[in-house]
Write a structure and sequence with these properties.
- There is one protein chain.
- The strands form seven sheets. Strands 1, 2, 3, 8, 9, 10, 11, 12 and 13 form a nine-stranded mixed β-sheet that branches. The protein has a five-stranded mixed β-sheet with strand order 22-28-27-24-25, with no helix packed on it. A four-stranded antiparallel β-sheet has the order 4-5-6-7, with no helix packed on it.
- Helices cover 4% and strands 54% of the residues.
- It is mainly beta and 427 residues long.
- Mean pLDDT is 86; it is low at 1-18 and 340-344.
- The chain contains one helix and 28 strands.
- It has one helix spanning 2-18, and strands spanning 35-41, 55-58, 64-71, 94-97, 108-118, 121-131, 134-148, 156-167, 171-191, 194-213, 218-232, 241-246, 249-255, 266-268, 273-276, 279-284, 286-288, 295-298, 306-311, 315-322, 328-338, 346-349, 360-364, 372-378, 383-389, 396-400, 407-415, 418-426.
């Protein structure tokens, strides 16, 4: 009888341990040589936010629309020019090739993300690219802490980080991020990949991005609130499932087997066209591949996949698309106004410097302009300041911007039928 009772207790303990919560540690993070495939899906069921102890999350109905591959290599496999900024063995011990550059139209090679994996944390340190043979590091001032290790149910951690990328007269990118994480559930996750014991990590990310691509004339500042739900398993390297919610856009990425070709991000605005002056029309960004959700930014200071415009003169529309993996592509479309009137304004571009600026910005006007009206606007078109401008020596104009908050702004100078426009970033 004692033997039967003893065996029963062993079976009961084994049964309980099989369904108890796991502990995620450094051995469950990605490692050198990992090549991990994931599927991207958009048909996320309602109620994905539910959580708690001993929860079953059934996502077996997910249907992939694209796949991506995350690979991880030794830091020694990256260009030695990067090692000065991301010191191997001291600051970083893992790298991952990026699938795209940072700026559309600017050839970039040897793009890598850099991580530091230790028994106490898994941190994102930033990334580096090479432009025209010159290595450019983009390093966070403080690491973006993905995971505090080891972690289990009810653990929590927070990190704050920022990054700046600036090539004068070409592009500027700045980002400030606060990540707040809570391990808010444990239980069984079911996906098309299988059934797993998991811990769920809920992340609230508050982020402000400033993007300006001088070569395209596109710039915008974006306040973002992103919710991430990650289901972490044992020895999987990357989350078994990540659901990302940003505004109305929700997408899922889950570990998977090969099911379809990996489709890179692409975007098309359609062919150039001609319309009668005064025509109102929609221009749609057709996006394929990549990792949703997508951000679309237009050179007319608008966002979204579709914009509605009134054509008063021949104009070229340019859009850039950024996906969740920070792949970036661009596309353009020229709409020609038929029989444009003789009273149209001529719009010319202002070359504003320094950019970014701290206290003052300067630009040069044609010699024919003796006085003009200056307006400083937000990227949403709100007027912040207007003044009468009198150019100085060599028709150089200097404007005090020290009172502006950090962000991106537009300058508009008007004189008669001439309009000059430019953008700048205030540090």
């Amino acid at each position: 009888m004692k033997k039967i009772l003893y065996l029963s207790m062993i079976c009961l303990i084994a049964s309980i341990s099989g369904f108890s919560q796991i502990i995620v540690d450094v051995n469950d993070m990605p490692a050198e040589g990992d090549t991990l495939r994931a599927s991207v899906a958009l048909n996320i069921p309602d109620g994905f936010e539910k959580t708690g102890a001993d929860t079953t999350w059934n996502f077996g109905m997910l249907q992939p629309v694209n796949q991506k591959i995350d690979s991880f290599v030794a830091v020694s496999a990256t260009p030695p020019a990067y090692w000065f900024f991301f010191i191997p063995g001291i600051e970083t011990n893992l790298a991952s090739p990026r699938t795209s550059g940072l700026i559309p139209g600017i050839p970039m090679t040897n793009a890598f993300n850099f991580y530091n994996k230790t028994p106490s944390a898994f941190n994102d340190l930033g990334f580096a690219v090479t432009v025209q043979g010159i290595p450019l590091p983009l390093k966070y001032d403080k690491p973006d802490k993905y995971y505090s290790l080891p972690f289990t149910y009810n653990d929590a951690w927070t990190s704050e980080s920022s990054i700046v990328f600036n090539i004068p007269s070409i592009a500027y990118y700045g980002s400030q991020r606060t990540r707040t994480n809570t391990v808010d559930g444990w239980g069984t996750l079911i996906t098309p990949y299988g059934s797993f014991q998991t811990l769920r990590v809920k992340s609230r990310i508050l982020q402000f991005d400033s993007i300006f691509i001088d070569s395209l004339g596109v710039g915008i500042g974006i306040n973002r609130e992103i919710m991430e739900y990650k289901w972490m398993g044992k020895t999987e390297g990357i989350p078994l499932l990540t659901i990302t919610e940003e505004g109305p856009i929700i997408s899922a990425t889950y570990r998977d087997i090969p099911r379809m070709p990996v489709v890179p991000l692409s975007m098309n605005l359609g062919p150039d066209t001609s319309v009668a002056k005064g025509t109102t029309m929609d221009i749609k960004a057709r996006i394929k591949g990549g990792t949703p959700p997508y951000q679309v930014i237009w050179n007319v200071m608008d966002t979204g996949k579709v914009i509605t415009v009134t054509i008063d003169s021949t104009v070229t529309f340019i859009a850039i698309c950024i996906d969740a993996a920070f792949n970036i592509v661009s596309s353009s479309k020229t709409v020609t106004a038929i029989n444009p009137g003789m009273d149209e304004r001529t719009v010319e571009r202002l070359l504003v410097h320094p950019n970014p600026a701290e206290k003052f910005v300067s630009f040069q006007l044609p010699e024919s302009v003796r006085e003009a009206d200056l307006t400083i606007l937000t990227l949403q078109g709100n007027t912040l300041k207007t003044t009468r401008l009198i150019p100085g020596i060599n028709n150089l104009c200097t404007v005090d911007v020290s009172g502006l908050a950090p962000g991106m702004y537009m300058l508009k100078v008007v004189e008669g039928n001439l309009t000059f426009a430019g953008k700048f970033v205030k540090k």
